[in-house]
Design brief:
Mean pLDDT: 86
Largest sheet: 2 strands, antiparallel
Shape: globular
Oligomer: single chain
Radius of gyration: 20 Å
Low-confidence stretches: none
Distance between the termini: 50 Å
Length: 162
């Protein structure tokens, strides 16, 4: 029951957070809400529960992991995935779109809607890149992350075809 209440609390807090601060970085706002709700769940259960202490910590950890899985699979995908935007664009055009129309739409709208600026802001906030002499360069953390992504792209065979 604690996990269900903690998860529902997370969902409610996340929705309110996004409605009040929509310009924030969605994923990090969600993680903050998840940590806050899991900690509150753990503290409340610790204080008022007569159950053994290890299940309290386990339940709070499960709530945190469920919230993280939800954040990574639903809002983050909807917010960032090109495929989601393509499906939405096609849904708004029952007559369909040619490949050239789709490519043109992405090229114009991605940039016009702040797609590049948004990603730059996120990377500056996470410390993976920095502005230097009018250019953006990877930080040490950014270089490490690029290497890690490259490793996983090769491991799971999902990177750009060479």
């Amino acid at each position: 029951m604690h996990i269900l209440l903690g998860s529902l609390s997370f969902l409610a807090l996340f929705v309110v957070t996004r409605q009040v601060w929509p310009a924030g970085i969605l994923f990090y706002q969600g993680l903050g809400c998840a940590v806050l709700c899991a900690a509150a769940q753990g503290l409340a259960a610790w204080r008022w529960s007569t159950a053994a202490r290890p299940p309290v910590a386990k339940d709070a950890l499960l709530t945190l992991l469920l919230a993280y899985a939800f954040m990574f699979t639903v809002p983050t995908t909807v917010d960032r995935a090109y495929s989601v935007r393509m499906i939405q664009q096609l849904a708004s055009r029952p007559e369909g779109m040619s490949r050239a129309d789709m490519e043109d739409w992405f090229a114009r709208h991605f940039v016009a809607q702040g797609g590049v600026e948004r990603r730059v802001r996120e990377q500056l906030a996470t410390g993976t890149l920095e502005a230097r002499d009018g250019r953006f360069v990877l930080t040490e953390r950014g270089r490490w992350l690029a290497g890690a992504f490259g490793f996983f792209q090769r491991l799971f065979n999902c990177g750009d075809p060479a």
